[in-house]
């Protein structure tokens, strides 16, 4: 015989309305056709932009793409693997200096510097990823911060190779005659091609078993180990992949700027990149792009507001964005989309 109390409770649960749930994205947003259409529209806008903007603005967009590639690697490490790095700018510098040295001392063709710079950063990230097997949190942050700190004096020490404090000045890739493009447009399209390839590679990586293993480690290392994920291997590879994307961005940076010096890769670069990623949105493919926009434009905006203390303005802007969008700009955009009513 059933308990009357339990029967009444069951009837109450049946009669009660279902608990409120977060609004689902509208049907048009979830359709694959719309997503492909949005991607095609974005690609068309990206190809059309350099023909409508002045050279300086084209240069700014080029730098946004470079920072987006660098942040793509940092997002892989921090947003998807759950690790921390305060030395990402050092791997960016390794890629930049590898390309510069190959161009200056070995006269290597520009396209060949890209895989070499990416490979050098990958190997260095693999070596420095070993401490990630045993360190976590603040201890890991201090190790990665040390990388960014000692790199600048190290680059200044080998003057014959790196140019010392004066750096290296290089020629930029000249546009081929058949393209009919100006130099700034040619550099933009080179950077765009590298960025698209990097994003496709990262998206494929995250959809593979490696991506699922990184997400498992981020959510719970103990549970991931029980499921058979090799923590040491995937943590080390996360650092290596992250460094590879940073090195790729550094190589393209050398092409675009035509100059490298140790003072361009201080600790501030690593901190700015991490801040840009958090503002853009962790764990999202659109986060690095939004973070690249933040890294490129917000410091100069802060400088325009107050020449005496741009760092204060920069910090206040970060606080304001985090207050409005705790999950980053990508998360804010996602919440706005989910609020769009469904079409029944």
TrEMBL record:
Residues 1-25 are annotated as: Disordered. GO terms for molecular function: branched-chain amino acid transmembrane transporter activity. Its main location: membrane. It is found in: Cell membrane. One of its GO terms (cellular component) is plasma membrane. Residues 16-25 have a biased composition (Pro residues). The keyword Membrane applies. The chain crosses the membrane at residues 34-51, 57-78, 90-108, 114-130, 137-155, 186-206, 237-259, 265-282, 312-333. Keywords: Cell membrane, Membrane, Transmembrane, Transmembrane helix. It is a multi-pass membrane protein. InterPro entries: ABC_transp_permease, LivM-like. It holds the Pfam family BPD_transp_2. This is Branched-chain amino acid ABC transporter permease. It comes from Nonomuraea diastatica.
């Amino acid at each position: 015989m059933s308990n009357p109390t339990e029967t009444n409770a069951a009837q109450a649960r049946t009669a009660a309305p279902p608990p409120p749930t977060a609004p689902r994205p509208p049907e048009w947003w979830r359709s694959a056709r719309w997503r492909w259409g949005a991607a095609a529209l974005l690609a068309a806008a990206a190809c059309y932009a350099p023909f409508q903007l002045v050279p300086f603005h084209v240069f700014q967009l080029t730098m946004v793409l470079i920072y987006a590639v660098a942040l793509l690697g940092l997002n892989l490490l921090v947003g998807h693997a759950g690790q921390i790095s305060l030395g990402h700018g050092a791997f960016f510098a390794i890629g930049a200096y590898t390309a510069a040295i190959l161009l200056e001392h070995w006269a290597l063709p520009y396209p060949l510097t890209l895989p070499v710079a990416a490979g050098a950063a990958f190997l260095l990230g693999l070596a420095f990823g070993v401490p990630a097997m045993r360190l976590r949190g603040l201890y890991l942050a201090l190790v990665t911060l040390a990388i960014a700190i000692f790199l600048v004096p190290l680059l200044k020490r080998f003057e014959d190779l790196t140019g010392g404090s004066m750096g290296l000045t290089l020629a930029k890739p000249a546009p081929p005659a058949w393209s009919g493009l100006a130099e700034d447009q040619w550099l933009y399209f080179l950077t765009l091609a590298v960025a698209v390839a990097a994003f496709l590679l990262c998206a494929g990586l995250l959809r593979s078993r490696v991506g699922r293993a990184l997400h498992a480690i981020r959510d719970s290392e103990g549970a991931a180990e029980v499921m058979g994920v090799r923590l040491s291997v995937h943590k080390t590879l996360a650092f290596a992949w992250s460094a590879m994307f940073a090195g790729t961005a550094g190589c393209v940076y050398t092409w675009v700027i035509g100059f490298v010096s140790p003072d361009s890769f201080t600790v501030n670069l690593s901190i700015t990149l991490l801040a840009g990623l958090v503002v853009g949105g962790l764990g999202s493919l659109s986060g690095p792009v939004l973070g690249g926009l933040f890294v490129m434009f917000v410091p100069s905006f802060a400088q325009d507001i107050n020449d005496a203390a741009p760092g204060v303005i920069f910090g206040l802007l970060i606080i304001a964005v985090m207050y409005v969008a705790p999950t980053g700009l990508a998360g804010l955009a996602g919440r706005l989309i989910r609020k769009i009513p469904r079409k029944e």
